[in-house]
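Minutes, project check-in
Item: structure for the 173-residue chain
Input as provided by the requester:
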Amino acid sequence: MVFARGMRLFRKLSIGMGYLVGFLIIMVTLVTTMNTFLRYVFKAPLSWPIEISEYIMVACTFLPASYVLIEKGHIKVDIIYEWFSVRHQNYASIATSVMAIIFCGVLTWKSGQLALRAYKMSWLSETGSGVPLFITYMVVPIGSFLLCVGFLMDVADSIIQLIGKNNEEEKTN
């Protein structure tokens, strides 16, 4: 019951990240178009759009990763995976998800340390915008943490499917 509620909440959060990134892509497009217009028509480009666009593109990489995972949009070698029985597909899913959890956990930890250091030392971007770097650095640990939770949900889902299959086999025997 609590697990199902947590899954629904996580799914809503991940979908929200997907919408946020969609909005950010629209904003980058508008800002880039505006800056191009200013550059070529008025010969007066702005200095900040390229930097902000780079930060947003990092956000577009990390924030929707859990949404892509939920929608099964990540790349996997289906040609080999489809040879497995459903039971062995679940085992393979658990194994790959555990490896991904370890990777995402380390990425969350190390990038979180960097973001915390940027906050404590008040690092600012070296361009004219002076954006506090901890804000942009926080995107990586947030996105990788959400991805880690998504992989945990995948492991739990695969285990539930395996237990369900075992119970069905016992009932038929």
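Outcome recorded: The chain is about 80% helix and 0% strand.
No further action items on this chain.
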